[in-house]
Amino acid sequence: MATKRKSAARRGKKKSEARIMPAWLRTILAVCIIAVFSAGFYWFFIRPYAYRWKPCYGQKGYGVCMPCDYEVHGIDISHYQGSIDWVQLTTNKTTKFPIHFVFMKATEGGDHADDTFPFNFDQAHRYGFIRGAYHFFSPKTDPLKQADFFIRTVQLIPGDLPPVLDVETIGKSTPHDLRIAVKTWLDRIESHYGVKPILYTSYKFKNRYLSDSVFNTYPYWIAHYYVDSVKYEGPWHFWQHTDVGNVPGIREEVDLNVFNGSLEQLRALTLQK
């Protein structure tokens, strides 16, 4: 029995020794794991925002590096910006990067109105900004219901920018169904206001879901952050180049935009008499 126990102990010892990983192999595995996690962290959390930390070779304004070669600047706002000091905001018209236009969120889905819209829309007109209103599109809600809700909420006058459709999510819709719903909203709005609406969406979303040529007939407002220039190859009218601007008169960070043209061309885009 003693011999059998010794033999079993020797076998157990050999198995235990066989299971021990060599130190050099453990080191290699640890390095590989660290490298994989570091690469993933950079790819998902650092790379998309790396442009924020690049040296600014142009001119800085509103806390960010401003795009070069654009003379017409603007912002877009919603209730997220809180209470706005419109008198102070007006002083930005005389700065190096004067603010000429302001887009405001008016509606979302079929029944959600931005509670700051009526006051801000009125103040923008009072203080001489070229103003515009946008609707945040919900793929799960009837597009005609959404369009009619926007129409009831937003009364445009000559000098205002065309209505804007903000499309950012596909929800549970198929790309085909999304395109039909978006076109339905655009058609209803164009029929009512007598002007082609502006289509707002990101560079990637436009290429992935709204690349149909039918949408290229609408003025395009592109959201494309942390890049030196617009990469979109087609025509575009507005470029939302950052979401972290700091503008006097607004306490919260705000989206900054440029218009791809002159101030006269921007006015020509507005509703006419």
From TrEMBL:
<keyword id="KW-0326">Glycosidase</keyword>
<dbReference type="GO" id="GO:0009253">
    <property type="term" value="P:peptidoglycan catabolic process"/>
</dbReference>
<keyword id="KW-0472">Membrane</keyword>
<dbReference type="GO" id="GO:0016998">
    <property type="term" value="P:cell wall macromolecule catabolic process"/>
</dbReference>
<feature type="transmembrane region" description="Helical">
    <location>
        <begin position="21"/>
        <end position="45"/>
    </location>
</feature>
<dbReference type="InterPro" id="IPR002053">
    <property type="entry name" value="Glyco_hydro_25"/>
</dbReference>
<keyword id="KW-0378">Hydrolase</keyword>
<dbReference type="InterPro" id="IPR017853">
    <property type="entry name" value="GH"/>
</dbReference>
<dbReference type="Pfam" id="PF01183">
    <property type="entry name" value="Glyco_hydro_25"/>
</dbReference>
<dbReference type="GO" id="GO:0003796">
    <property type="term" value="F:lysozyme activity"/>
</dbReference>
<dbReference type="GO" id="GO:0016052">
    <property type="term" value="P:carbohydrate catabolic process"/>
</dbReference>
<keyword id="KW-0812">Transmembrane</keyword>
<dbReference type="InterPro" id="IPR018077">
    <property type="entry name" value="Glyco_hydro_fam25_subgr"/>
</dbReference>
<protein>
    <recommendedName>
        <fullName>Glycoside hydrolase family 25 protein</fullName>
    </recommendedName>
</protein>
<comment type="similarity">
    <text>Belongs to the glycosyl hydrolase 25 family.</text>
</comment>
<keyword id="KW-1133">Transmembrane helix</keyword>
